[in-house]
Specification:
Layout lengths: L2 H16 L3 H20 L1 H29 L6 H20 L1 H30 L4 H20 L8 H26 L5 H4 L1
Helix pairs in contact: 2-3, 2-7, 3-4, 3-5, 3-7, 4-5, 5-6
C-alpha cells in the first residue's frame, strides 16, 4: 500500500471509529459554548480566575522542574535548569500574590503581541501579494487597532479583556466541536470510509 492511499484510509478509519461518539462531541461543544457565555457574562471574574490558574500552573511546573533539576544535578546544565524552574515559581507566586497587577501585565503583553503580529501580517501580505492578500492585510490592521485600543485603555481594560477573550475562544471552540459532531452523525456507520 502506498503512502498516498494510507493517509486517506487512516483518516477514514478514524472517522469511522468516532462515528458512534458524535453525541459526545455535540455535548462537549454545547458545554464549551455555555462556558464561553458564562466567561463573557462574568468577564472580570473569568480574568481573575485565569490569572490565578496560570499562577498555580507555573508554581506546579516550577516544583516539577526543581525536582528534575536535583535528580540530574551532575549535569552541566543544572544551574540553568534550576534557575529556570526557580524563576517560573517566582512568576507564579507573583501572579497569585498580585493578581490585579498581573492582569495589567498580561494585557500589556497581549496588546504588544497584537500590534507586532498585526504589523508583520499586514506588511507580509502587502509585500507578498498572494491571492486575496487584502484579507490578511485587513486582519493585520484589525490586530494593530485592537492592540492600540488595549494600550490606550490600560489599566481599566485589563480587568475584563482576558475573560472576554477566553469566553470568545470557548464559544468558537464549542461551535467547531458541535460542527464536527454534526458532521460525524451524517457519516455512514458501515466502515466504508476506512475501506476507501
Amino acid at each position: 500500500m502506498s503512502s498516498k492511499n494510507s493517509l486517506p484510509a487512516s483518516i477514514g478509519a478514524d472517522i469511522d471509529a468516532s462515528h458512534d461518539s458524535w453525541g459526545w462531541f455535540v455535548a462537549l461543544g454545547i458545554a464549551l459554548i455555555i462556558l464561553g457565555f458564562v466567561c463573557i457574562a462574568g468577564e472580570v471574574t473569568a480574568t481573575l480566575i485565569t490569572v490565578l490558574a496560570l499562577g498555580w500552573l507555573l508554581i506546579l511546573g516550577s516544583i516539577l522542574a526543581l525536582i528534575q533539576a536535583f535528580r540530574v544535578r551532575n549535569w552541566s546544565g543544572f544551574f540553568l535548569y534550576f534557575l529556570s524552574g526557580l524563576l517560573r515559581g517566582v512568576t507564579g507566586y507573583l501572579l497569585i500574590r498580585y493578581p490585579f497587577t498581573a492582569e495589567v501585565s498580561l494585557t500589556l503583553v497581549l496588546a504588544s503581541f497584537f500590534i507586532v503580529g498585526g504589523i508583520f501580517r499586514t506588511v507580509g501580505a502587502g509585500t507578498l501579494r498572494f491571492p486575496r492578500w487584502g484579507w490578511a492585510a485587513l486582519s493585520g490592521l484589525v490586530s494593530v487597532a485592537l492592540g492600540v485600543m488595549l494600550l490606550m485603555q490600560l489599566p481599566v481594560v485589563s480587568l475584563w479583556f482576558i475573560g472576554l477573550a477566553i469566553g470568545i475562544e470557548f464559544i468558537f471552540d464549542g461551535v467547531s466541536v458541535v460542527t464536527l459532531g454534526s458532521a460525524l452523525r451524517t457519516v455512514p456507520s458501515d466502515g466504508s470510509l476506512a475501506k476507501a
